[in-house]
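Sample 3 of the quickstart, ligand pyridoxal-5'-phosphate:
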Amino acid sequence: MPKISFKGLNMPDSPIRKLTPIADGAKALGRHVIHLNIGQPDVQTPPMAMEAVRSMDRTVLEYSPSEGFVSYRKGLASYYSSVGVDVTPEQIMVTTGGSEALAFAFMACLNPGDEVIIPEPFYANYNGFAATAGVRIVPVTALLDDGFALPSMDAFEELITERTKAILICNPGNPSGRKYENDSLDTLAELVKKHDLYLVADEVYREFDYDGKLSRSVLSMEGLEDNAILVDSVSKRYSMCGARIGALVTRNASVYRAAMKFAMARLSPPTMAQVASEAALKTPASYFEEIRLEYMQRRDVLVEGLREIPGVVCPTPGGAFYAVARFPIDDCDVFCKWILESFQWEGATVMLAPNTGFYATPGLGKQEIRMAYVLEVSEIRKAVTCIAEALKVYPGVVMPRTQSHS
Ligand SMILES: Cc1ncc(COP(=O)(O)O)c(C=O)c1O
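Result:
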């Protein structure tokens, strides 16, 4: 039989989806599985986006320009201006999801063997985009006990080699929900300039921001014109994950030109979904405010509920819709499997994401679990009770040692 490629063999499984067959097994037994594992929001897509597709006045579903429809890019430029980012439509490339923007950024900026430094834990699919581009991810570890704050500049600097070409941040963060402070971003910008690196910022959770202040975008920071690449998406903003529309935005014309060649090779982003995304730009501010308040409530129910469980530590996330908690357990991969296979509380069980899959450093995150609070409050309450009861009987409970000098 012909052999599978090294890349094919080495692509990591998604920590978010790898337990799906076990969850299906639990469902087959009649259990209600509460999905805290995946960031698929239950929020309604803005009706004007759906309506735009329904009333589409086209007789041919043709390709769009490789960089996306100009009317949509003009609309996007106005949207960016409303969040403090001044860019022209020519600096915006519409992509097939934020995923493709990440892949384009890697392929346009890094050679095979080049290194990108990423604070870990990080969105696990970065591994896939890096593997595709032959890029090496160098992790810099952020700590749960620091609320996953941006690691110190010394920690970044120690990792910079002649192969380092870029730093990638996700703000607000997945999986941590961390929102970086402006002064941390400023120091990071200094470092990027000092070493002449690209700064790729994944800002797909921009609107999910719980202190009321818009997160600073890398494209609103001065002096980063040649360095900054913004990755964006409609998936979470308008609850349009299935549209597969994102954007790569940069003022660096050479990066744009290089990315454009990859864009032309894949012909165009989805036509119908661009029509929906353009209409979604008219979503009123009240839609986001309602969602923000709903998610804040969900976050509080989850985080406060978890903190009441003995041995659980959970920093308060400032944005996105994920929380990472430390559980008093031996191994999160074993626990996440066990709870689906061997535990139920009043007919329900919970699907969680083991946080080990969000680290590049082997062995890290073994006691950490990522949860997406994308469900109604009543379901989140049920999930927290289920977790609390599970931890009473899980055979691999490891209680943190109390301070003792004996
Ligand atoms: C941090 C982050 N970046 C990018 C993506 C991919 O987004 P898209 O659906 O636009 O490809 C996701 C999806 O969950 C994500 O969490």
